[in-house]
Specification:
The chain has 201 residues and is an alpha+beta fold. It is built from 6 helices and 8 strands. Bound molecules: coenzyme A.
Length: 201
Amino acid sequence: MSQTQSLIFPNKLEGKRIVLMRPEPISMDLAAEIYAEVDASRDFLRPWLPWVDSTHSAEDELVHYLYDYVSKKWKEGVAFPYLIRHKETQQLLGSVDIMHVDMEHKSGEIGYWLSQKATGFGYMTEAVSVLESKAFELGLNRIVIRNDTRNLPSVGVAKRSGYRLEGVLRQDTWLPDQHKWRDTNLWSKLKSEWSQAHSKD
Ligand SMILES: CC(C)(COP(=O)(O)OP(=O)(O)OC[C@H]1O[C@@H](n2cnc3c(N)ncnc32)[C@H](O)[C@@H]1OP(=O)(O)O)[C@@H](O)C(=O)NCCC(=O)NCCS
């Protein structure tokens, strides 16, 4: 395998209570299912996810999310977005991605959201664990999580998942709607740290 060959992530990853599914086959039904969750959690997601207010319909999910992002990025091998479903009920809980995958430096970034009613059960902590394990097994050396310093639930996910805070990127993002700057936490985990934690299992 050459140093820069793309990773091949599986279409399905299993945790104890959840499964991570590649969002396919792409269909209007799938787009409508995702849109329903985003729409029901719109006020909850809005402060932290810039795409929420540009998502107005199932057609937007189909075109802008499933075709322009999911399908394209999987093919390019630079981002692998998964839907999170409950293992028993198949209920859609949210999404988790490994993105900005850089095979030269063997690094990537995990991003995520849950529908509001799926929070408080540890599903995202489980999803991060499942996805990072596959990413490290496939050859990544470093995974980062970024979050707004005010986003305490997301900070909780990074901490519970054992990520180390490298620092705060001061005023790295301008929020036009709020007319203010945002500070971003940068968290990371290295393969050596993941291997060490898993050797104790
Ligand atoms: C960020 C986000 C995914 C965190 O959701 P969450 O439910 O708090 O995170 P988890 O699924 O890991 O659940 C952890 C919570 O469940 C509780 N929990 C219950 N059972 C648990 C278990 N088996 N394992 C771990 N935690 C468990 C934890 O105590 C914690 O609750 P607490 O914060 O009240 O202590 C969610 O708030 C969200 O989608 N926010 C909007 C979008 C967003 O901010 N995305 C990130 C942008 S950087």
